[in-house]
Amino acid sequence: MKDYQLDGNREMVALGTMNVVGSMTSCYVATGSFSRSAVNYMAGCQTAVSNIVMSVVVFLTLQFLTPLFKYTPNAILAAIIISAVISLVDYQAAILIWKIDKFDFIACMGAFFGVVFISVEIGLLIAVSISFAKILLQVTRPRTAILGKIPRTTVYRNIEQYPEASKIPGVMIVRVDSAIYFSNSNYVKERILRWLTDEEAVKGDYHTRIQFLIVEMSPVTDIDTSGIQAFEELHRSLEKRSVQLVLANPGSAVTDKLYTSNFANIIGQDKIFLTVAEAVAYCSPKLDVNP
User: Mind telling me which residue stretches traverse the membrane in this protein (predicted)?
Assistant: First the structure.
Protein backbone atom coordinates (compact mmCIF):
# COMPACT_ATOMS: atom_id res chain seq x y z
CA MET A 1 0.00 0.00 0.00
CA LYS A 2 2.97 2.28 0.58
CA ASP A 3 5.24 0.61 -1.97
CA TYR A 4 7.50 -0.77 0.75
CA GLN A 5 10.25 -3.12 -0.38
CA LEU A 6 9.98 -6.09 1.95
CA ASP A 7 12.27 -9.07 2.39
CA GLY A 8 10.03 -12.13 2.46
CA ASN A 9 12.65 -14.23 4.25
CA ARG A 10 12.98 -11.71 7.07
CA GLU A 11 9.21 -11.56 7.41
CA MET A 12 8.99 -15.34 7.72
CA VAL A 13 11.84 -15.43 10.25
CA ALA A 14 10.13 -12.72 12.31
CA LEU A 15 6.78 -14.53 12.29
CA GLY A 16 8.43 -17.83 13.12
CA THR A 17 10.38 -16.33 16.01
CA MET A 18 7.23 -14.69 17.40
CA ASN A 19 5.34 -17.95 17.29
CA VAL A 20 8.18 -19.94 18.87
CA VAL A 21 8.53 -17.47 21.74
CA GLY A 22 4.77 -17.02 22.03
CA SER A 23 4.17 -20.75 22.24
CA MET A 24 6.13 -20.78 25.50
CA THR A 25 3.60 -18.44 27.11
CA SER A 26 0.39 -19.79 25.52
CA CYS A 27 0.07 -16.83 23.17
CA TYR A 28 -2.27 -16.74 20.21
CA VAL A 29 -0.67 -17.64 16.87
CA ALA A 30 0.84 -14.55 15.22
CA THR A 31 0.26 -13.95 11.51
CA GLY A 32 0.48 -11.12 9.00
CA SER A 33 -3.15 -10.21 8.38
CA PHE A 34 -3.90 -8.12 5.29
CA SER A 35 -7.11 -6.85 6.84
CA ARG A 36 -5.35 -5.58 9.97
CA SER A 37 -2.65 -3.98 7.82
CA ALA A 38 -5.36 -2.24 5.80
CA VAL A 39 -7.11 -0.97 8.95
CA ASN A 40 -3.76 0.24 10.28
CA TYR A 41 -3.03 2.07 7.04
CA MET A 42 -6.48 3.65 6.80
CA ALA A 43 -6.14 4.89 10.38
CA GLY A 44 -3.21 7.02 9.21
CA CYS A 45 -0.40 5.12 10.91
CA GLN A 46 3.07 5.94 9.64
CA THR A 47 5.60 3.79 11.51
CA ALA A 48 5.93 0.37 13.11
CA VAL A 49 5.34 1.97 16.51
CA SER A 50 1.66 1.85 15.61
CA ASN A 51 1.81 -1.93 16.04
CA ILE A 52 2.98 -1.49 19.63
CA VAL A 53 0.18 0.98 20.32
CA MET A 54 -2.32 -1.36 18.68
CA SER A 55 -1.13 -4.33 20.74
CA VAL A 56 -1.52 -2.30 23.95
CA VAL A 57 -5.02 -1.23 22.93
CA VAL A 58 -5.97 -4.80 22.06
CA PHE A 59 -4.61 -5.99 25.41
CA LEU A 60 -6.61 -3.40 27.34
CA THR A 61 -9.70 -4.18 25.29
CA LEU A 62 -9.44 -7.89 25.99
CA GLN A 63 -8.87 -7.27 29.67
CA PHE A 64 -11.53 -4.68 30.40
CA LEU A 65 -13.86 -4.11 27.43
CA THR A 66 -14.60 -7.63 26.24
CA PRO A 67 -18.04 -7.77 27.93
CA LEU A 68 -19.11 -4.70 25.97
CA PHE A 69 -18.44 -6.47 22.66
CA LYS A 70 -20.14 -9.69 23.67
CA TYR A 71 -23.38 -8.89 21.92
CA THR A 72 -21.89 -7.22 18.84
CA PRO A 73 -23.30 -9.00 15.75
CA ASN A 74 -20.79 -10.73 13.50
CA ALA A 75 -22.26 -8.81 10.58
CA ILE A 76 -21.01 -5.56 12.08
CA LEU A 77 -17.53 -6.97 12.60
CA ALA A 78 -17.58 -8.27 9.03
CA ALA A 79 -18.64 -4.84 7.75
CA ILE A 80 -15.69 -3.24 9.53
CA ILE A 81 -13.26 -5.66 7.91
CA ILE A 82 -14.86 -5.37 4.47
CA SER A 83 -14.76 -1.58 4.56
CA ALA A 84 -11.07 -1.76 5.43
CA VAL A 85 -9.98 -4.31 2.82
CA ILE A 86 -12.23 -3.30 -0.06
CA SER A 87 -9.46 -0.98 -1.27
CA LEU A 88 -7.20 -4.03 -1.66
CA VAL A 89 -9.42 -5.41 -4.44
CA ASP A 90 -7.61 -4.31 -7.59
CA TYR A 91 -9.82 -5.21 -10.54
CA GLN A 92 -7.50 -3.35 -12.91
CA ALA A 93 -4.75 -5.81 -12.01
CA ALA A 94 -7.11 -8.70 -12.81
CA ILE A 95 -7.84 -7.19 -16.22
CA LEU A 96 -4.12 -6.78 -16.86
CA ILE A 97 -3.47 -10.40 -15.86
CA TRP A 98 -6.19 -11.50 -18.32
CA LYS A 99 -4.52 -9.57 -21.13
CA ILE A 100 -1.04 -10.87 -20.34
CA ASP A 101 -1.56 -14.51 -19.40
CA LYS A 102 -4.89 -16.37 -19.42
CA PHE A 103 -3.46 -19.16 -17.28
CA ASP A 104 -2.48 -16.70 -14.54
CA PHE A 105 -5.98 -15.23 -14.71
CA ILE A 106 -7.50 -18.67 -14.15
CA ALA A 107 -5.27 -19.12 -11.09
CA CYS A 108 -6.29 -15.67 -9.86
CA MET A 109 -10.00 -16.39 -10.24
CA GLY A 110 -9.57 -19.83 -8.70
CA ALA A 111 -8.02 -18.29 -5.61
CA PHE A 112 -10.65 -15.54 -5.46
CA PHE A 113 -13.73 -17.75 -5.74
CA GLY A 114 -12.18 -20.46 -3.58
CA VAL A 115 -11.62 -17.99 -0.76
CA VAL A 116 -15.03 -16.31 -1.18
CA PHE A 117 -17.17 -19.43 -1.40
CA ILE A 118 -15.17 -22.07 0.49
CA SER A 119 -12.19 -21.04 2.62
CA VAL A 120 -8.82 -19.36 2.49
CA GLU A 121 -7.01 -22.70 2.54
CA ILE A 122 -9.02 -24.09 -0.37
CA GLY A 123 -8.57 -20.88 -2.36
CA LEU A 124 -4.82 -21.01 -1.92
CA LEU A 125 -4.79 -24.71 -2.76
CA ILE A 126 -6.67 -24.05 -6.01
CA ALA A 127 -4.29 -21.26 -7.02
CA VAL A 128 -1.18 -23.30 -6.18
CA SER A 129 -2.53 -26.34 -8.04
CA ILE A 130 -3.28 -24.31 -11.17
CA SER A 131 0.13 -22.62 -11.03
CA PHE A 132 1.84 -25.98 -10.56
CA ALA A 133 -0.05 -27.38 -13.55
CA LYS A 134 1.13 -24.40 -15.61
CA ILE A 135 4.74 -25.03 -14.62
CA LEU A 136 4.45 -28.72 -15.52
CA LEU A 137 2.94 -27.81 -18.88
CA GLN A 138 5.76 -25.39 -19.64
CA VAL A 139 8.41 -27.89 -18.58
CA THR A 140 6.97 -30.84 -20.50
CA ARG A 141 6.05 -28.81 -23.60
CA PRO A 142 8.90 -26.33 -24.12
CA ARG A 143 8.79 -23.77 -26.89
CA THR A 144 10.57 -24.72 -30.08
CA ALA A 145 11.01 -22.75 -33.28
CA ILE A 146 12.30 -23.03 -36.83
CA LEU A 147 14.86 -20.33 -37.57
CA GLY A 148 15.52 -18.43 -40.74
CA LYS A 149 18.12 -15.89 -41.81
CA ILE A 150 17.28 -12.20 -41.52
CA PRO A 151 18.06 -10.58 -44.90
CA ARG A 152 21.45 -8.87 -45.23
CA THR A 153 22.61 -10.18 -41.83
CA THR A 154 24.09 -13.31 -40.28
CA VAL A 155 21.33 -13.36 -37.66
CA TYR A 156 18.88 -16.27 -37.47
CA ARG A 157 15.48 -15.80 -35.87
CA ASN A 158 12.09 -17.47 -35.51
CA ILE A 159 10.38 -17.42 -38.90
CA GLU A 160 6.99 -16.98 -37.23
CA GLN A 161 8.14 -13.88 -35.38
CA TYR A 162 10.10 -12.56 -38.37
CA PRO A 163 8.25 -13.48 -41.58
CA GLU A 164 11.00 -11.89 -43.67
CA ALA A 165 13.49 -14.46 -42.38
CA SER A 166 14.36 -16.96 -45.11
CA LYS A 167 15.03 -20.67 -44.77
CA ILE A 168 18.36 -22.07 -45.89
CA PRO A 169 18.00 -24.57 -48.76
CA GLY A 170 18.89 -28.07 -47.63
CA VAL A 171 19.29 -27.01 -44.00
CA MET A 172 16.69 -26.93 -41.26
CA ILE A 173 17.53 -24.85 -38.18
CA VAL A 174 15.64 -25.58 -34.96
CA ARG A 175 15.85 -23.81 -31.62
CA VAL A 176 14.82 -25.35 -28.29
CA ASP A 177 13.88 -22.71 -25.70
CA SER A 178 14.28 -24.77 -22.56
CA ALA A 179 16.54 -27.05 -20.62
CA ILE A 180 16.17 -30.64 -21.82
CA TYR A 181 15.25 -33.08 -19.06
CA PHE A 182 13.56 -36.46 -18.77
CA SER A 183 10.19 -34.71 -18.63
CA ASN A 184 10.48 -33.10 -22.06
CA SER A 185 13.28 -34.92 -23.89
CA ASN A 186 10.96 -37.23 -25.81
CA TYR A 187 8.69 -34.33 -26.75
CA VAL A 188 11.65 -32.34 -28.10
CA LYS A 189 12.84 -35.29 -30.17
CA GLU A 190 9.39 -36.04 -31.58
CA ARG A 191 8.76 -32.37 -32.29
CA ILE A 192 11.99 -32.02 -34.27
CA LEU A 193 11.31 -35.19 -36.27
CA ARG A 194 7.76 -34.05 -36.99
CA TRP A 195 9.05 -30.71 -38.25
CA LEU A 196 11.62 -32.48 -40.39
CA THR A 197 8.91 -34.65 -41.92
CA ASP A 198 6.75 -31.61 -42.64
CA GLU A 199 9.66 -29.71 -44.18
CA GLU A 200 10.60 -32.64 -46.40
CA ALA A 201 7.00 -32.90 -47.56
CA VAL A 202 7.07 -29.29 -48.73
CA LYS A 203 9.97 -29.66 -51.12
CA GLY A 204 8.95 -26.58 -53.05
CA ASP A 205 10.55 -24.39 -50.40
CA TYR A 206 13.98 -25.86 -51.17
CA HIS A 207 16.25 -26.47 -54.12
CA THR A 208 17.30 -29.70 -52.50
CA ARG A 209 16.17 -32.08 -49.81
CA ILE A 210 17.01 -31.52 -46.14
CA GLN A 211 20.55 -32.77 -45.54
CA PHE A 212 21.51 -30.96 -42.33
CA LEU A 213 19.62 -30.35 -39.11
CA ILE A 214 21.10 -27.57 -36.98
CA VAL A 215 19.90 -27.40 -33.37
CA GLU A 216 20.44 -23.95 -31.87
CA MET A 217 21.11 -24.67 -28.19
CA SER A 218 21.90 -21.30 -26.63
CA PRO A 219 18.60 -21.30 -24.64
CA VAL A 220 19.30 -24.86 -23.40
CA THR A 221 20.73 -24.14 -19.96
CA ASP A 222 21.10 -27.79 -18.96
CA ILE A 223 20.60 -31.33 -20.18
CA ASP A 224 20.35 -34.60 -18.29
CA THR A 225 20.95 -38.24 -19.21
CA SER A 226 17.49 -38.64 -20.71
CA GLY A 227 18.05 -35.56 -22.84
CA ILE A 228 21.34 -36.93 -24.17
CA GLN A 229 19.70 -40.28 -24.90
CA ALA A 230 16.96 -38.44 -26.79
CA PHE A 231 19.62 -36.72 -28.90
CA GLU A 232 21.28 -40.07 -29.56
CA GLU A 233 17.95 -41.47 -30.76
CA LEU A 234 17.43 -38.34 -32.84
CA HIS A 235 20.88 -38.81 -34.37
CA ARG A 236 20.10 -42.42 -35.31
CA SER A 237 16.77 -41.42 -36.83
CA LEU A 238 18.45 -38.70 -38.86
CA GLU A 239 21.12 -41.10 -40.11
CA LYS A 240 18.39 -43.31 -41.55
CA ARG A 241 17.16 -40.27 -43.48
CA SER A 242 20.70 -39.32 -44.56
CA VAL A 243 20.48 -36.12 -42.51
CA GLN A 244 23.44 -34.91 -40.47
CA LEU A 245 22.96 -33.47 -36.98
CA VAL A 246 24.80 -30.24 -36.15
CA LEU A 247 24.76 -28.35 -32.83
CA ALA A 248 25.18 -24.60 -32.45
CA ASN A 249 26.17 -22.64 -29.36
CA PRO A 250 25.62 -25.13 -26.52
CA GLY A 251 26.38 -23.67 -23.09
CA SER A 252 29.38 -24.72 -21.04
CA ALA A 253 27.38 -27.05 -18.78
CA VAL A 254 25.70 -28.68 -21.78
CA THR A 255 28.99 -28.97 -23.68
CA ASP A 256 30.70 -30.68 -20.75
CA LYS A 257 27.93 -33.27 -20.55
CA LEU A 258 27.97 -33.85 -24.30
CA TYR A 259 31.68 -34.63 -24.16
CA THR A 260 31.43 -36.65 -20.95
CA SER A 261 28.69 -38.83 -22.44
CA ASN A 262 30.73 -39.24 -25.66
CA PHE A 263 27.85 -37.83 -27.70
CA ALA A 264 30.15 -35.14 -29.10
CA ASN A 265 32.32 -37.88 -30.58
CA ILE A 266 29.28 -39.74 -31.91
CA ILE A 267 28.13 -36.82 -34.06
CA GLY A 268 31.67 -35.53 -34.58
CA GLN A 269 33.37 -32.74 -32.68
CA ASP A 270 33.61 -30.79 -35.92
CA LYS A 271 29.81 -30.48 -35.91
CA ILE A 272 29.58 -28.36 -32.77
CA PHE A 273 29.80 -24.63 -33.51
CA LEU A 274 29.78 -21.36 -31.64
CA THR A 275 27.04 -19.74 -33.72
CA VAL A 276 24.33 -20.74 -36.16
CA ALA A 277 26.05 -18.70 -38.88
CA GLU A 278 29.22 -20.79 -38.50
CA ALA A 279 27.18 -23.98 -38.61
CA VAL A 280 25.43 -22.86 -41.81
CA ALA A 281 28.78 -21.89 -43.34
CA TYR A 282 30.00 -25.42 -42.59
CA CYS A 283 26.91 -27.08 -44.07
CA SER A 284 26.41 -25.03 -47.22
CA PRO A 285 29.47 -26.23 -49.19
CA LYS A 286 28.61 -29.84 -48.38
CA LEU A 287 25.07 -29.72 -49.77
CA ASP A 288 24.27 -32.10 -52.58
CA VAL A 289 22.07 -29.88 -54.73
CA ASN A 290 19.37 -31.72 -56.65
CA PRO A 291 17.25 -29.20 -58.57
Answer: 12-31, 52-69, 75-98, 105-133
